[in-house]
C-alpha cells in the first residue's frame, strides 16, 4: 500500500508527523512508519487520516496489489 501523507502534510501548512499523530491518536513514530509504507494503519485510522486532510480515502491511500 502506498500513500500521499507526506505531500498532504506539506500542503497542510507543513503539518508535522507529531501534529498529525495527535489529531488521529497515533505517535509520531507510527505516523512515520505509515508514511514510509512500513506499517499499514487500521481502516478506522486510515479514514481518520483522510478526514484530517479533507480527502476521500482513495486520495490518501492506494492499494497496489
Automatic annotation (TrEMBL):
> Which Pfam families does the record cross-reference, listed alphabetically?
HTH_3
**CDD domains recorded for this chain?**
HTH_XRE
Cross-referenced SMART domains: HTH_XRE (SM00530)
- UniProt GO molecular function: DNA binding
Membrane as a keyword of this entry, yes or no, is: no
Q: Which UniProt keywords apply?
A: DNA-binding
Q: Which residues form the HTH cro/C1-type domain?
A: 15-60
SUPFAM superfamilies found in the cross-reference section: lambda repressor-like DNA-binding domains (SSF47413)
Query: Could you confirm whether the keyword Ribosomal protein appears in this record?
Result: no
Q: Which PANTHER family match?
A: DNA-BIDING PHAGE PROTEIN, TRACRIPTIONAL REGULATORY PROTEIN-RELATED-RELATED
Question: Any idea what this protein is called?
Answer: Helix-turn-helix transcriptional regulator
Q: What taxonomic lineage is listed for the species of origin?
A: Bacteria, Pseudomonadati, Pseudomonadota, Gammaproteobacteria, Lysobacterales
Amino acid at each position: 500500500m502506498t500513500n500521499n501523507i507526506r505531500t498532504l502534510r506539506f500542503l497542510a501548512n507543513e503539518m508535522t508527523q507529531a501534529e498529525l499523530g495527535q489529531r488521529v491518536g497515533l505517535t509520531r513514530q507510527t505516523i512515520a512508519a505509515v508514511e514510509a509504507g512500513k506499517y499499514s494503519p487500521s481502516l478506522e485510522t486510515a479514514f481518520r487520516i483522510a478526514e484530517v486532510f479533507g480527502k476521500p480515502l482513495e486520495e490518501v491511500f492506494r492499494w497496489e496489489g
